[in-house]
Specification:
three-stranded antiparallel sheet, alpha/beta, globular, 12 strands, single chain
């Protein structure tokens, strides 16, 4: 496979990751037959699991079940898929062929008006809120991402095992405000550990973005492959072909609008974080007294 990567590869990419995959599919109460057929017909190697379809009210519950099942299995990879997406037959083979520890295919959020990407642009500081990937990714090029969704994501066992201790018993997937870094409550109560503020807002952060955050902090890169393109079913599978048809006016408005909105949100976020830091110092000062 001839592929162009953003900048120079990191040391972690010099290691080639191989092995068999556990295929976990998160499904809602009402399935999409065409999507399930495309997943069932996906090419697999000997030793890969058959797709495991898990129905749950909340997608993160199904994904957490799949992550736990994979870690208890003999498999090296966890392939997470959404049960309402049409996928190409060679999806797993393409993602695995990169030999990267963490790689996602391209798709959009489930919706048509407006269309929204699920990739987020690379940001070394991982600032909230994150900037959506606003352009059309180039074929044959791999992209470093801040975060992605879990609708088409291949993650090596090594990545999950590196993240697990950081979570202090919390699950890999959960809808969480991410106000605090995961911590040992007994250690905090004893004064051996201080609470670390992540965000100043109480709104929910998707379980997908939460896992991306910890994967990056464990030293791994979330890579995106635009040639592993999937379609999210609305009335039909909305995908990159639809995104590329958006006119220039929409694209320019989307780009400028997100920049303006996110700059303001980041400013208010930092002000709230400073307020929480001041409150935290007062609380710790009172405890010391």
């Amino acid at each position: 496979m001839t592929t162009r990567y953003d900048n120079a590869p990191l040391e972690a990419h010099e290691k080639r990751y191989e092995g068999t995959a556990y295929i976990g599919v998160a499904c809602g109460e009402f399935g999409v037959t065409e999507a399930h057929v495309s997943i069932s017909e996906m090419a697999r190697r000997p030793g890969d699991s058959e797709p495991v379809f898990r129905i749950a009210t909340k997608g993160w519950e199904a994904r957490q079940d799949h992550a736990e099942a994979m870690l208890k299995s003999r498999h090296d990879w966890l392939l997470l898929l959404d049960g309402d997406m049409g996928i190409p037959a060679m999806l797993l083979e393409r993602l695995r062929a990169h030999g990267l520890p963490c790689v996602t295919g391209h798709y959009l959020r489930r919706g048509y008006k407006p269309m929204r990407p699920i990739w987020y642009e690379d940001d070394p500081e991982f600032r909230w809120p994150m900037m959506p990937f606003r352009g059309s990714p180039e074929p044959g090029r791999m992209y470093r991402l801040s975060a992605t969704g879990s609708g088409c994501w291949l993650i090596h066992r090594e990545v999950l095992e590196a993240v697990q201790p950081m979570l202090k018993g919390e699950p890999f997937f959960v809808d969480d405000a991410m106000t605090w870094w995961p911590y040992d409550i007994d250690a905090v109560a004893a004064g051996r550990e201080k609470l670390r503020i992540l965000r100043g807002r109480k709104d929910r952060v998707g379980s997908d973005l939460r896992l991306s955050f910890f994967i990056r902090h464990a030293g791994y890169t979330v890579w995106g492959d635009p040639d592993a393109a999937c379609g999210h079913f609305v009335q039909y599978p909305v995908g990159m072909k639809d995104w590329d048809l958006l006119d220039r006016e929409y694209r320019e408005g989307f780009a400028l609008g997100t920049e303006k909105d996110i700059e303001g949100l980041r400013g208010s976020m930092m002000a709230e974080i400073e307020r929480l830091r001041d409150m935290q110092e007062v609380l710790h000062g009172d405890s010391a007294a």
